[in-house]
Amino acid sequence: MNRGAILEMQPGRELDALVSKTVFGMENVGFIPYSTSIAAAWSVLEKMEQETKVSVWSDNNRKWACEVEYMIHDDCDTAPEAICKAALLYKHNIFGRGITDDLIPPEVQCLNIVSPYATDRTAEKQTTRS
């Protein structure tokens, strides 16, 4: 699944099933409304906090954002949607703001700093850019 497909998903059963599989490693466990219920979404947030730093907030335009490992996914109508999409982007390692590496000048690519929360996969990707 690519970044665009995740961002285009609407809150509902399809997004919930993907969160269940990707974040929790569970399939066919019944319906858990991760993308529409703050109580269910909170379990996603708690699961992500076991791996990295996570925060959620609302801006002045009543849009929600979720930050996972210093990468922000924003512009969601609800907190559960922001949490679910941020978790999926993080788990699929496609957390960006629509800018691909080939559009970033080489001098900027070299400035990547490995987070203390970085996974081995993230650290490998960041060191190969230098």
From TrEMBL:
<protein>
    <recommendedName>
        <fullName>Phage ABA sandwich domain-containing protein</fullName>
    </recommendedName>
</protein>
<dbReference type="InterPro" id="IPR028985">
    <property type="entry name" value="Bacillus_phage_prot-like"/>
</dbReference>
<feature type="domain" description="Phage ABA sandwich">
    <location>
        <begin position="32"/>
        <end position="88"/>
    </location>
</feature>
<dbReference type="Pfam" id="PF18066">
    <property type="entry name" value="Phage_ABA_S"/>
</dbReference>
<dbReference type="InterPro" id="IPR041270">
    <property type="entry name" value="Phage_ABA_S"/>
</dbReference>
